[in-house]
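hey so i finally got around to running the thing on that chain from the lab meeting. sorry it took forever, my laptop kept dying and i had to restart like 3 times. anyway pasting the input first so we r on the same page abt which one it is
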Amino acid sequence: MEVGIVGLGRMGGNMAIRLARAGHRVVGNARSPDAIAAVVKEGAVGAATLEDLVQKLAPPRAVWLMIPAGAPTEEYMGRLLQLLSKGDTLIDGGNSHYTDSVRHFTTAQAVGIDFLDIGVSGGIWGLQEGYSMMIGGPAGPVERLRPIFESLAPAPTEGWGHVGGPGAGHFVKMVHNGIEYGMMEAYGEGFDVLRAKQEYGFDLGKIATIWRRGSVVRSWLLDLTAEILLENPTLDKIPGYVRDSGEGRWTVEESFSLGVPTPVITLALEQRIRSRDETLFNEKLLAAMRQKFGGHALGPE
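ok and heres what got predicted. didnt touch it at all, straight out
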């Protein structure tokens, strides 16, 4: 099966490579010639423009956007809806707000183009481990593109699924990221308490490693935390400035709207905002975790 991927950054580029290695025909487009060259080296086909990408795909086409939410997605959505044909499928795999995805579905449907919103998780490790995908939209194009999802996922029947109608994929991903905020905050606070008990001289990397096996708090996030603390126990040169992508905020806003209390996620979001004024060990560890699992930059923009 073939697919076009627009946006070959950390996530999009690795997705293109994983699909090409699985035997799919991938046509990749990006603003950077180097990003295109990197996926071509792995067996993908390069496209210098969106027009070139569409021409190199056979109908019914599938074009997957892996670009920042907001204005960039709006721009590329508009351009691609002019280039694609009835029966094609357009996918937004970025972290768009779910209400934008509902609107994009309606706009695409009006011209006979299918639209899927897919929340993608896996960070920079997805190339090796596979990606978790939460898919929103109509069932038809999901089933047609099943081979693509099966190749990107950790296993053909694991780590991905159709979760509901238009906007559902990005809604689930939004809540997923809100939960991630809470988990990261709990780990950060716990290790900060251990660090503060100086008379014991706790080896935080060793403790994290112990917890990785058999403990009820074991997780992939803890695995990454153990690596961080073994490599840099005092988190030297790690700024305590913790960014947020916006999805934690959206989760909290939705919780207020729905009347569902989310104290942990809300406080975790507040801690990230507070980190921009104070630099504590906890915030340093959160910043290091984001870099470890997603390749996110350290410090402010």
